[in-house]
Amino acid sequence: MKKTISLIAFITVLISCNTELDINTNPDSLDPSNAPLSAQLPAGITGIVGPEGAGMAIFGGFWSQFWTQSNGANQFKDIDNYSAGTADYNFIWDSMFDGLGDIRNVKRKALAEGNWNYYLIATTLEVQASQILTDMYGDIPYKEANNSSITSPKFNTGQEVYAYMIEDLDDALSKNLSESFGEVPGNDDLIFGGNMQNWKKFANTLKLKIYIRQTNSSNATAANAAITQMLNDNVEFLSVDASMTQFVDEINQSNPLFEYIERRLNVATNLRMSRTLSSFLDENSDSRKTKYYEAGNALNQGDYTNGVGSGTIAIVNLKATTPVLLMSKEESLFLQSEAKLRNNDTTSAKNLYEAAVNSNFSRYNLSGSSYLTGVYAFPDAGTFEEKLETLITQKWIASFPGNGYESFFEKNRTGYPKTSTVPQTSSSYVPGQFAYAVNGTTNGSFPKRIVYPLSERNANPNSPVLVSITTPIWWE
After folding, report:
1. What is the pTM of this model?
2. Which residues pair with 250 in a beta bridge?
3. High-pLDDT (> 70) share of the chain, %
4. Sign of the C-alpha dihedral, residues 403, 319, 99, 189?
5. Most buried among 46, 182, 344, 414, using CB within 10 Å?
């Protein structure tokens, strides 16, 4: 178990781009059976917040085309041109599973003690992190992961992981929290401060996300039926952010993405405004643009060899105190909106869509009302696909800056925003359409996943055969 909730350990790993952490053994120096749950939970939360808030956010921002590699730096060219390989960014996988090790220690101890509060919290966190891992990598260790007696955990297929996640959430949600024994979560719960109703809603919303993500897969019929059942049962979904907010503008204590880009790399100008998102915001006179980017011009996606001076290209606006959102209020509302849309309740879908858009504008102290009666109006008379495109496009914008991995998954699932058939230099380019990176290395194919890290392939003989970065995830 980690002995501090500081993100310094993760940031140190991030800079070196390698780590000695190993998901196949227990790296923690303290016996989790003797440590109180309230001491282990913060370590688990910060353990997943670090890699999600920095490494995953960086990949997501590039592949959701929020930003592109600076033409005056080199740090992320391999992400921007789709060439990141097995020797790159091992820290994301290793750190995520290290954090999951703490979370699973909490889960095992809570189950043994009958502490259903901590059991629900740990299970929800386990599923939240595992969903991102399996959606980004494909097959992952799940059932045998973070077990000190299993040195080479089996990889479960993505479909298996999805089934297990639902099974585990259902199990945790079935427990009677009023009969929970032992400690009561409070300040050690860095997400909801011990509010168990919010944890139940978060777990329900994760279930909804898991079902929705399968709606274009071979499991579509069962997933749609499950969505309908949740709506018929009047299940309560998340109505607030599930976030870690305790960041301050001090070294090692700030938002992980800010900490890495602004402090540790010491190249605050590395992430530059992509023409993809910025052109859409310009086209619609969207006031969020000034909150997302500093003043300057846009760079075509992946055009880091452009000779324009770096000072003329807008920098991404990052803040030290920005929360890390495990799930935003907006994401929950967009998920609910799509669920209603798939159940032919257009009125509810529209209301939830508008609430989501308004919530995102409010996050920046802006008003979205005029947009919802104008350029962002819900297409009441449109087709299902037109309604879905409107919804997913706004979900994409609302994922900025730290949750771009989710809009990347949604682009792969739905095809929205659409992909441009012309380069961004063309007068025919449609603002907001995804463009293949100018310096892309995959012959016109977009990335679909991060490839397995060398650290895991060397340590675990059960690692799957390596597949291309352009190989789709099973649900696509």
Report:
1. 0.93
2. none
3. 91
4. negative
5. 46
